Amino acid sequence: MKILEQIKDNYSLLKNLSIDELNQLCEEIRNLIIKVVSKNGGHLSSNLGTVEITVAIHRVFDIPPDKIIWDVGHQCYTHKILTRYQKFESLRKYKGISGFPNPSENPNDIFLVGHAGTSISSAVGLKIGKDYKKENEKIIAFIGDGSLTNGLTFEGLNFLGSIKKNVKIILNDNKMSISPTKGALSYYLTKLITSPVINKPRKEFVEILKKIPTIGDDILKLTKEIEKKAKFLIIPGVFFEKLGIRYFGPIDGHDIEQLIEILENIKNIEEPVILHIITKKGKGYRFAEENPEKFHSVFPFKIETGEIKEEKRTNSKFVGQILEELAEKYEFFVITAAMEKGLGLENFAQKYPDRFFDVGIAESNAVVVASGIAKTGINVFVAIYSTFLQRAYDQILHDICLQNLPVIFLIDRSGIVGEDGPTHHGIFDISFLRSIPNLKIYAPYSLENLKKIIENSIFEKMPVFIRYPRDILPESLKEEYDEENKISIVPVGSLSFNSYFAYEKLKKENYKANFIPVSQILPIEKTQLGKILTSDKIITIEENVLSCGFGSYILEILSDMRIKKDVLRIGLPCVFIEHGDRDLLLDEYGLSPEKIYLRIKEFIND
User: Fold this and answer.
1) 127-142, pLDDT tens digit by residue?
2) For residue 79, which of 68, 71, 90 has the smallest C-alpha distance?
3) How far apart are CA 108 and CA 110, in angstroms?
4) Is 259 in the same domain as 358?
5) Which residue, among 83, 164, 173, 167, has the nearest Cα to 119 in the 3D structure?
6) 285 and 344 housed in the same domain
7) Is residue 440 within 8 Å of 522, Cβ to Cβ?
8) Which candidate in 67, 130, 281, 582 is catalytic?
9) What average pLDDT does range 155-179 have in this prediction?
10) 363 catalytic, yes or no?
11) pTM of the full predicted structure?
């Protein structure tokens, strides 16, 4: 019988497994992850790299009551298997389990998280509360090396070092190689300095030395100096030590026996600790090992060949091509925050390396750097996902719009993104941008329209925000208007194609309506507004929450002009929307072609 089957109803049995059995368990987990992700899609490379360390954490610590807090959540699949094995086959499916930690589906997930850099601060706060309540639970923050580029991570580290709370940090480094010599030396050194034999009497030893007349303090200083210099020579963790956090490692993150030994040693150290482990992205699946970026977040694929079953055409690649073409005629920079490939910018980066900057997972920094470039009079694009744009709100307001700087934001993944769920849906950007002065917001409704908007943005003298979905827009789409018609269907950007279906169906049923797709959301073009206002019934349609969205903007205009019209706003409710196939979710929330048609027909006939 497989080890997973043996322990699925009682995960405490994990603590009784031999090293050989734990290695077998890791192999079974790795195969299960590959199997499920090949069918459902998901984050493969990073999760294959964290199998052994996750098993070791569950072996050494008592989860629950001990808590593990995941940074981003890209690396939590093994944890999900060990705590929700029976549900893992439903990963990322509608009504199935989320691809990220989610407390509503699993009490062993502490926070619902999909953005990087939060785990250390969250862990510190959790430990403060637990200590105050006299609850002696171990708190582990699991963070990837990519999150070390995030400013919030350093704020958390700095605070942790200052208050000395007993938080254990696992730093998963999957971008470095570890040589056998360095690995062995580092392992034995880490094993030695984490040993209870050394750590248990540490405080007592210090107290004894202090009591020795005359020479006690000198011996203590000498001992500390020797330890400090040894660490400077051998350990690459001096930075953390300077912050007041004890550093151990790096060690091999795929050696389950070593991991268990070291975790047992640091488990009861009553200080903040960081354990640096080296792992390999895509570990155990050749195609992911050879191309970890491709398999970071992947569509369903064939296990035997690594071939993506359905390589979808995306707006991201189209935008990347537009930028490449524009770069031949105009001077500009492109900045992104660790999303080069996802944004379709890899070719631009290769062709124009001196005009492309990836600042890492540091969205606020990306925006402020862009403000500096714009001050020099050179155009700059900031390419970013809608969900991550939220992280730079203050910088957008203070450093871009307040200064009225002509920075162009390419906002990818706007609207419902599907299987990544509530942490990644880009359904709030119209709402949170619309209240800021000195900006223009665009939502292209076709590829032709998207290209024109990006090309024209080069000549703007103010901040510009261009939002578009991941799924490819139609090649072209035309307005259909007759001033005699008293019904206007006014879709925004990505939902224009679905809305056109509804318009065509109504037209066949002899309803007299206008179809006026809008790409310039704020401020709306005066000619389009004039056409809209000729109608008695106005239907706005948007892939954004209705609260403070485009429909609300039209109502505000009508109110300010003291014009009374019958208005139907179709959009998303102001809720956090679950994960699932995008088309399925659009239908669920009334934004599929058929549902839009039915809503409009009901409104017209009311």
Assistant:
1) 999 999 999 999 999 9
2) 68
3) 6
4) no
5) 167
6) no
7) yes
8) 281
9) 85
10) yes
11) 0.87
DSSP 471: B
Q: How far is CA 500 from CA 244, 274, 310, 445, 480, in A?
A: 61, 55, 26, 11, 10
Task: Confirm whether 37 is domain-assigned.
Answer: no
Say whether 289 is catalytic.
no
Could you tell me if 164 and 58 lie in one domain?
yes
In this structure, are residues 91 and 37 in contact, taking their beta carbons and an 8 Å threshold? Answer: yes
The question of whether 281 is a catalytic residue gets the answer yes
β-pair type (537-545, 246-252):
unpaired
Residue 225 falls within a domain, yes or no?
no
Note whether 388 and 506 are same-domain residues: no
> What's the rounded mean pLDDT across residues 469-486?
95
CATH of residue 240? 3.40.50.970
Q: Which runs of consecutive H residues, i.e. helices, occur in 85-237?
A: 119-132, 151-163, 180-194, 196-199, 202-211, 216-234
Question: Which candidate in 67, 246, 391, 413 is catalytic?
Answer: 391
Is there a single domain that holds both residue 281 and residue 322?
Answer: no
436: nearest Cα among 469, 465, 467, 466: 465
Which tens digits make up the pLDDT trace of 358-383?
A: 998 899 999 999 999 999 999 999 99
Active-site residue (options: 52, 363, 419, 542): 363
Say whether both 506 and 436 belong to one domain. Answer: no
Residue pair 590/568 in contact by the 8 Å Cβ criterion: no
CATH of the domain at 531: 3.40.50.920
Clarify whether residues 458 and 504 are in a common domain. no
Spatial CB neighbours of 471, under 8 Å, sequence gap ≥ 6 = 312, 314, 315, 494, 582
* Cα–Cα nearest to 435, from 393, 391, 467: 393
The count of domains in the chain is 3
Q: Determine, yes or no, domain membership for 123.
A: yes
Other C-beta atoms lying within 10 Å of the C-beta of residue 565: 15
Same domain, 401 and 330: yes
- Domain containing 514: what range? 487-605
Identify the CA nearest to 68 among candidates 3, 4, 126, 27. Answer: 126
